[in-house]
């Protein structure tokens, strides 16, 4: 029985790895919003007057909340770009093992970035190394894609 293009696409080990790690990263980003809200309640630090009104709290800034919020913003800046670049990279027919390794390392780096920035607050250069790892992986895949499609 002949496979359709869609079935071959979904059953491809390369794209299955891509879809797995993109899904993990999407869930990570989804978790960051409630984590920010939980942290706001825990430290009673709300951004808007109406958010703390029922507790009779005025808006205030808290470092714990800001760390979680900034970690989330960093995800928003880096993960969507990775998703696009990684998809294009998949179109260059890379080794499945190599591409999967890059996806895994990027995903681990994003989790490590959040842990060292917002959860455990580990001093620099831990956060810089985690961010830089993801940055260089995305850059590498973009460069490889450019070279593939340029020639």
UniProtKB/TrEMBL annotation:
Residue ranges crossing the lipid bilayer per the database entry: 18-38, 79-96, 102-122, 129-150
Ranges in coiled-coil conformation: none
One Pfam family this sequence matches: MAPEG
Protein's UniProt keywords contain Acetylation: yes
EC number per UniProt: 2.5.1.18
Membrane topology: Multi-pass membrane protein
Subcellular location: Endoplasmic reticulum membrane; Mitochondrion outer membrane
GO cellular component: endoplasmic reticulum membrane; mitochondrial outer membrane
Single Gene Ontology MF annotation: glutathione transferase activity
Family, per entry: Belongs to the MAPEG family.
Subunit structure: Homotrimer; The trimer binds only one molecule of glutathione.
Name of this protein: Microsomal glutathione S-transferase 1
Species the sequence originates in: Zophobas morio
């Amino acid at each position: 029985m002949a496979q359709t293009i869609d079935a071959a696409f979904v059953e491809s080990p390369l794209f299955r790895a891509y879809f797995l790690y993109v899904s993990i990263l999407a869930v990570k980003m989804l978790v960051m919003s409630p984590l920010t809200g939980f942290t706001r309640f825990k430290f009673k630090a709300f951004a808007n007057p109406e958010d703390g009104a029922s507790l009779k709290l005025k808006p205030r800034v808290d470092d714990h909340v800001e760390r979680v919020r900034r970690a989330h913003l960093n995800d928003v800046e880096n993960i969507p770009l990775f998703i696009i670049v990684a998809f294009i990279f998949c179109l260059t027919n890379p080794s499945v093992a190599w591409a999967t390794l890059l996806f895994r390392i990027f995903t681990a780096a994003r989790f490590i970035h959040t842990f060292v920035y917002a959860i455990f607050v580990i001093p620099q250069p831990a956060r810089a190394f985690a961010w830089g790892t993801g940055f260089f992986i995305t850059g590498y895949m973009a460069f490889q894609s450019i070279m593939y499609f340029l020639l």
